[in-house]
Amino acid sequence: MRMGVLAMQGAYKEHISILDDLDVEAVEIRNKEDLKDIDGLIIPGGESTTMGKLINTLDLYDDLKEKIEGGLPVWGTCAGMILLAKNIYNDDTKHLATMDIEVMRNAYGRQLGSFYVKGEVKGINNEVEMVFIRAPYIKEVGEGVEVLSKVDGNIVAARQKNMLVTSFHPELTNDLTMHKYFLEMVKNLVYTKDYIMQ
């Protein structure tokens, strides 16, 4: 399995380190050529506006959008979730806009800008470590979006078909649970041929 990690800005090195620990080949995605022959993609946390601009500047937008809409398994964490969302609350900005969710940026405000909890995620037996850093949360979900986790009543993880999003940063903990969850999701999608590699 070859896992792509969008490596422009943000916590991509931490994701790659965890994939290494799990004996999964990680590919840093910086240009079109890097997108060839990957089985899945992780879009890390960071600064969504900067990442969105770089995707366009490096001429990756069309390729990324086409692959995700074509079924490439993708996981967006924090800023990655904002990039995948079809709508951003009180903001007309559109990034990849592939997942039928509306997100609220910096939703927890300054006082709760960063915090840590353990929470439940649907389909996972043990509690998951969750690190939130000026995190967004999902304000609304569309039809076909499965809510996987809530913290204080706010949606912080969801899935729609081949797309997984989390408000929190699993890559900033020693908890490998969410990465294992995503890798299992990739295996199931690839091996049931819901997604056929080009």
Morphology: globular
Q: Give, in order, the helices and strands.
A: EHEEHHEHEEEEEEEEH
Q: Assign the CATH topology.
A: Rossmann fold
Number of strands: 12
Any key phrases for this structure?
single chain; 198 residues; alpha/beta; Rossmann fold; 7-stranded mixed sheet; 3-stranded mixed sheet; 5 helices; 25% helix; globular
Provide a short characterization of the protein structure.
The protein has 198 residues and is an alpha/beta fold.
Describe it for me?
By secondary structure, the chain is of the alpha/beta class. The protein is globular and about 40 Å long. The chain has a single domain, classed as 3-Layer(aba) Sandwich (Rossmann fold). It has a seven-stranded mixed β-sheet with strand order 2-1-3-4-12-11-10. The relative contact order is 0.17. The chain has helices at residues 12-21, 48-57, 61-69, 79-84, 177-191; strands at residues 2-6, 25-29, 40-43, 74-77, 85-88, 99-104, 114-119, 128-133, 137-141, 146-151, 154-160, 163-166. It is built from five helices and twelve strands.
